[in-house]
Amino acid sequence: MSEHNQHSLDHHDEEGPHSTFSGYMLGFIASVILTAIPFWLVMADVLSSRNATVVVILGFALVQILVHMIYFLHMNFHSEGGWNMLSLIFTIVLLFITLAGSLWVMYHMNANMMPGMMGST
Amino acid sequence: MSHSTALPAAPDSFDFLVREEHHVANGTLLGFWLYLMSDCLIFAALFATYSVLSQSYAGGPTGAELFDLPLVALNTSFLLFSSITYGFAMLQMQQGKLKGTMIWLAITGIFGAAFLGLELFEFYHLIHEGATPQRSAYWSAFFTLVGTHGLHVTFGIIWLITLLVQLRKHGLTVPNRRRLFCLSMFWHFLDVVWIGVFTIVYLMGSMS
């Protein structure tokens, strides 16, 4: 791919991530399986325990997100000199703080604002 | 990578000035990736809000009563198919085939539109059943989260149509390839967000 475009302002942008047919198909088939199993688990009510189902489907979601990141978004440790991965890790840290922090704080706030507790003061 | 030794310089002319500054290639793609990461934080806030309010029905209808999981599964498959067809468009682009790129891009757009149509139908159905955004904190959080994702898909489709017009006018030029890469990231990112939506909102919501 040595196509030189004299009018282009930015020669560096010619090369994006290289993708292959087998990579996309692998990601797609994995995604279909990783989507079908959680839907089946919930719709057919396979596991008796609700908590177990939640943990399992969240696990499937995490694996599927990883599959999409690798096969569709072409994430790796060396694209863009590592800046892609660094910004992703930073975002994941913030995501974790936002989600876990909100749930943790609000759970306790709810517990402390129960009508019963307010009545007892 | 930071030293410029590739230039055949004469031995007596030591060049301490780095003429061509080393910068990250594909600056646009990195910048767009950073935008997606900031978008990710918007969704993180919306997911957190939804999770906190996941039981706040205010005596109104619950998600478990109203969600139609087969419909959501169909919608999920639409989005998944649109991801792989966008992948095929990128493969056609790599081979320099303009027509193939445009055809697969159009198919991607159709899948995206089908997804949106089904989502709007679902919203209409929910509102008809009394689950409006005003009904309870739960439904406010639901419509904000799922609606924001749907809005992203809407803008993705507008972008896709714009790109189709540009491709037809200018062909697979370097700027157009760059735009295709950016939309590719955007589109696949939306599919990643949807994994969180169908797992946390629909599947977990249907169990409680």
Automatic annotation (TrEMBL), chain A:
<dbReference type="Pfam" id="PF03626">
    <property type="entry name" value="COX4_pro"/>
</dbReference>
<comment type="function">
    <text>Cytochrome bo(3) ubiquinol terminal oxidase is the component of the aerobic respiratory chain of E.coli that predominates when cells are grown at high aeration. Has proton pump activity across the membrane in addition to electron transfer, pumping 2 protons/electron.</text>
</comment>
<keyword id="KW-0249">Electron transport</keyword>
<dbReference type="InterPro" id="IPR050968">
    <property type="entry name" value="Cytochrome_c_oxidase_bac_sub4"/>
</dbReference>
<keyword id="KW-0560">Oxidoreductase</keyword>
<dbReference type="InterPro" id="IPR005171">
    <property type="entry name" value="Cyt_c_oxidase_su4_prok"/>
</dbReference>
<comment type="subunit">
    <text>Heterooctamer of two A chains, two B chains, two C chains and two D chains.</text>
</comment>
<keyword id="KW-0472">Membrane</keyword>
<keyword id="KW-0812">Transmembrane</keyword>
<protein>
    <recommendedName>
        <fullName>Cytochrome bo(3) ubiquinol oxidase subunit 4</fullName>
    </recommendedName>
</protein>
<comment type="similarity">
    <text>Belongs to the cytochrome c oxidase bacterial subunit 4 family.</text>
</comment>
<feature type="transmembrane region" description="Helical">
    <location>
        <begin position="54"/>
        <end position="73"/>
    </location>
</feature>
<feature type="transmembrane region" description="Helical">
    <location>
        <begin position="85"/>
        <end position="107"/>
    </location>
</feature>
<dbReference type="InterPro" id="IPR014210">
    <property type="entry name" value="Cyt_o_ubiqinol_oxidase_su4"/>
</dbReference>
<feature type="transmembrane region" description="Helical">
    <location>
        <begin position="21"/>
        <end position="42"/>
    </location>
</feature>
<keyword id="KW-0813">Transport</keyword>
<keyword id="KW-1133">Transmembrane helix</keyword>
<keyword id="KW-1003">Cell membrane</keyword>
UniProtKB/TrEMBL annotation, chain B:
<keyword id="KW-0472">Membrane</keyword>
<dbReference type="InterPro" id="IPR033946">
    <property type="entry name" value="Ubiquinol_oxase_su3_dom"/>
</dbReference>
<keyword id="KW-0812">Transmembrane</keyword>
<feature type="transmembrane region" description="Helical">
    <location>
        <begin position="103"/>
        <end position="127"/>
    </location>
</feature>
<keyword id="KW-0560">Oxidoreductase</keyword>
<dbReference type="InterPro" id="IPR024791">
    <property type="entry name" value="Cyt_c/ubiquinol_Oxase_su3"/>
</dbReference>
<dbReference type="Pfam" id="PF00510">
    <property type="entry name" value="COX3"/>
</dbReference>
<comment type="similarity">
    <text>Belongs to the cytochrome c oxidase subunit 3 family.</text>
</comment>
<protein>
    <submittedName>
        <fullName>Cytochrome o ubiquinol oxidase subunit III</fullName>
    </submittedName>
</protein>
<feature type="transmembrane region" description="Helical">
    <location>
        <begin position="139"/>
        <end position="165"/>
    </location>
</feature>
<feature type="transmembrane region" description="Helical">
    <location>
        <begin position="72"/>
        <end position="91"/>
    </location>
</feature>
<keyword id="KW-1133">Transmembrane helix</keyword>
<feature type="transmembrane region" description="Helical">
    <location>
        <begin position="186"/>
        <end position="205"/>
    </location>
</feature>
<dbReference type="InterPro" id="IPR000298">
    <property type="entry name" value="Cyt_c_oxidase-like_su3"/>
</dbReference>
<feature type="transmembrane region" description="Helical">
    <location>
        <begin position="29"/>
        <end position="52"/>
    </location>
</feature>
<dbReference type="InterPro" id="IPR014206">
    <property type="entry name" value="Cyt_c_ubiqinol_oxidase_su3"/>
</dbReference>
<feature type="domain" description="Heme-copper oxidase subunit III family profile">
    <location>
        <begin position="1"/>
        <end position="206"/>
    </location>
</feature>
